[in-house]
Design brief:
The complex is a heterodimer. Chain A has no helices and 11 strands. Chain A is mainly beta. Chain A has one domain: Immunoglobulin-like. The chains are: A mainly beta, B mainly beta.
Chain lengths: 114, 114
């Protein structure tokens, strides 16, 4: 079952902040975040594993609330290069050798205006 | 930086024809995946492959689809009898160790079935 992302789209001015949410009805082992620019492949941003943690990547960070099975991606002081579609991908089981494919949400379109 | 390489970048085929999409994953990665993305929609999981066998597949991955790792470097997706609805961007991805590591996506093959 695919994770649910919100909002579907965000329009920001350069320098503003954004939060993108991802929730699942299933117990998650890991949450991935990817950014995809038009006509390009998704690019890995970060991964959060169960246990509830927060990670950062430059001005982009994310958190994972294991109790709520929710993850949020935080974009601070957004730059024009942040424009794109952000996907969360969730893995519900990691069978210690089994390769479970990620299920992606429908994506959040982020538009950064000068 | 290591890349996942996909060929061809574009493929046009007639309905009912067989197509083979090729991928060269990153050399030290052990987990391989195929995803597809219909224009403007989310990235959909097709199949995961580990230790020379399919470990998980989605409902989309029916009998018309097959995957192979014919040698130590290539990973292929075959569609036996293409349908119009198979038109999509097909992404290959690889991961060092499953969903606890980020996936690296190839640049995709745009398949158009006419």
């Amino acid at each position: 079952q695919q994770p649910v992302q919100s909002p579907q789209a965000v329009i920001l001015r350069e320098g503003e902040d954004a939060v993108i949410n991802c929730s699942s009805s299933k117990a998650l082992y890991s949450v991935h975040w990817y950014r995809q620019k038009h006509g390009e492949a998704p690019v890995f941003l970060m991964i959060l594993l169960k246990g509830g943690e927060q990670k950062g990547h430059e001005k982009i960070s994310a958190s994972f609330n294991e109790k709520k099975q929710q993850s949020s991606l935080y974009l601070t002081a957004s730059q024009l290069s942040y424009s794109g579609t952000y996907f969360c991908g969730t893995a519900t089981v990691y069978s210690g050798g089994g390769a479970d494919g990620l299920t992606f949400g429908k994506g959040t379109h982020l538009i950064i205006q000068p | 930086e290591p890349e996942v390489t996909q060929t061809p970048s574009h493929q046009v085929t007639q309905m009912g024809q067989e197509v083979i999409l090729r991928c060269v994953p990153i050399s030290n990665h052990l987990y391989f995946y195929w995803y597809r993305q219909i224009l403007g929609q989310k990235v959909e999981f097709l199949v995961s492959f580990y230790n020379n066998e399919i470990s998980e597949k989605s409902e989309i991955f029916d009998d018309q689809f097959s995957v192979e790792r014919p040698d130590g470097s290539n990973f292929t997706l075959k569609i036996r009898s293409t349908k119009l609805e198979d038109s999509a961007m097909y992404f290959c991805a690889s991961s060092e160790a499953g969903p606890i590591y980020g996936y690296t996506f190839g640049s995709g093959t745009r398949l158009t079935v006419v």
